[in-house]
Amino acid sequence: MFLFGVNLKMHQTPQQTREFLQMLRERVARVPKIERARLWVIPPFTSTAVAAEAAHGSGIRIGAQNMHWADEGAFTGEISPLMLKACGAEFVMLGHAERRTLFGETDAVLNQKVLAAVRHNLGVMLCVGEPVAVKAAGAGTEYVSQQLKLALCGLATPGDLQVLYEPLWSVGEGGVAADPDYVSVAFGNIRRVLRELFGAAGEHVPILYGGSVDATNCARYARLPQSSGMGVGRAGWNVDSFVAVLTNALAALD
């Protein structure tokens, strides 16, 4: 199954998300090879419940962009796993590049969030990736390995875990998409660490690529033998471009 979806970041009101998903459901049904895809959408928290309602029965999974590790408490501005579940989220994205760089999230903090999500039967999309200085030093493999080991510490089985590899230098406006050969090496390293952590079960954890994916380059990542799918940002913020990327990615599959 090819996993494909969009992080809407801080875009869309609840009504806009409802309209986005209603249109998306209609359009993706006509995409060739759609039966080979499993789609997901990660809206802003304020749109989570509306998104879950609009996606109901479509097979589109709804996720959240972040959460706190506590069930409740004096954590102004935070959202708990219980709240996400109540709003209909099926999984949570943790460790996105922007959370790490703009808000200082550490692997130790992410580990608390991962364990909390699993405790509440929320799937986890763990984002990992090296900054440009680490890449320049040739230390990306070691850096990402450490991210995985720290964030997943104490997790006995992978369960509903997927890993999204997004080099920090490839994310956001001005980001540069990574060379597919570079991504292939990164995927191989991620798989090695997952096997080290979870044994045979680590073979089955989906690994996705994210970072400046668009309709012109998506096929190169879809063809990678280790790839389980990809995530998009701005290239998926309207239905036309979402469908264009999805169509081209699926067309590249054997």
Description:
This protein is α/β, with parallel strands linked by helices and 254 residues long. The protein has one domain (2-251): Alpha-Beta Barrel (TIM Barrel), CATH 3.20.20. It has ten helices and eight strands. It has helices at 14-28, 48-55, 81-87, 97-103, 107-119, 132-136, 140-151, 180-198, 218-222, 239-251; strands at 2-7, 37-42, 61-64, 91-94, 123-128, 161-165, 207-210, 229-232. An eight-stranded parallel beta barrel has the order 1-2-3-4-5-6-7-8, surrounded by five helices. Strand 1 (2-7), helix 1 and strand 2 form a beta-alpha-beta unit. Helix 1 (14-28) packs parallel to helix 2 and helix 1 (14-28) packs parallel to helix 10. The longest helix is centred in the last third of the chain and has 19 residues, at 180-198. The protein is globular and about 45 Å long. The model has no long low-confidence stretch (mean pLDDT 97). Pathway: Carbohydrate degradation; glycolysis; D-glyceraldehyde 3-phosphate from glycerone phosphate: step 1/1; Carbohydrate biosynthesis; gluconeogenesis. It catalyses: D-glyceraldehyde 3-phosphate = dihydroxyacetone phosphate. It is found in: Cytoplasm.
